[in-house]
Design a protein that fits this description.
Blueprint (H helix, E strand, L loop, with lengths): L9 H8 L14 H11 L11 E6 L2 H7 L7 H5 L2 E8 L6 H10 L8 H12 L3 H25 L3 E5 L4 H7 L6 E10 L14 H4 L4
Antiparallel strand pairs: 1-2, 2-4, 3-4
This protein binds flavin mononucleotide.
Length: 211
């Protein structure tokens, strides 16, 4: 395979040039339409059986930020970034599959008789396995967040994934359902000077097994 250089490919350049921001311009906002567009892009990420088991709470007003900040270690990104998403994963539940696949059938992507062929194995995989249900919630939320992180980067915006928050307090304060897990917080906005440069990575030889 020929070596792909970042300069020749905008997507790879976007991936390779990202870093996590700490400092944001507190005066820079995003419109609700821009926030919606980021989430729309996030929801293009893949999910198991097309479950789309996620929800995104966009914390963007001063009032909502003031509720989130003290239960998120008072991290500066919460108050300063234009928006912080509470990325919620939903416990994998195969009973939603007919509803989630209906638009595919409608659009002619999938034949109707194939729906049970997805629902039944999903039921067998998740129904009696709470840990798998939760793993899938975290996986889906993470994929969605990742898509939003790179979309933000491509739009010239910084982003910060954050696990530094009190999950129970966030659950209660922002009305998450019993079946919802706050997977991470994700701040997005215009960066201001002072953020660290990119961090070196472990060598590929240390993290890759070719078998
Ligand atoms: C799951 C996850 C949780 C993180 N939590 C926080 C956090 O609470 N606060 C923070 O400032 N950075 C947080 N980070 C950012 C990491 O510190 C950062 O991604 C890592 O040091 C690598 O740096 P880079 O993203 O700039 O390449 C988190 C990153 C991930 C993926």
């Amino acid at each position: 395979m020929s070596r792909v250089t970042p300069q020749t490919n905008a997507v790879i350049e976007c991936i390779l040039s990202r870093n996590a921001a700490k400092y944001y311009d507190p005066a820079a906002t995003l419109s609700d339409d821009q926030i919606r567009e980021l989430v729309r892009i996030g929801t293009s990420a893949p999910t198991s059986f097309h479950l789309q088991n996620w929800r995104f709470i966009a914390v963007r007003t001063a009032e909502a930020k003031a509720r989130l900040s003290p239960i998120a270690w008072n991290q500066p990104a919460i108050t300063d970034a234009a928006v912080t998403f509470i990325v919620c994963g939903q416990l994998a539940d195969s009973s939603v599959i007919p509803d989630r696949l209906a638009p595919l059938v409608e659009a002619g992507v999938m034949p109707a008789e194939m729906v049970p062929e997805w629902e039944i194995p999903a039921r067998n995989l998740y129904m009696d396995y709470p840990q798998r249900q939760r793993d899938e919630a975290v996986r889906s939320g993470t994929f969605g967040a990742a898509a939003m992180i790179y979309a933000a980067r491509s739009l010239g915006l910084g982003s910060t994934p954050m696990i530094g928050f009190d999950a129970e307090a966030v659950h209660h304060q922002f009305g998450l359902g019993e079946h919802e897990v706050p997977v991470m917080l994700l701040s997005v906005g215009t960066e201001r000077p002072g953020n660290w440069p990119q961090k070196p990575r472990r060598p590929v030889a240390d993290v890759l097994d070719l078998v």
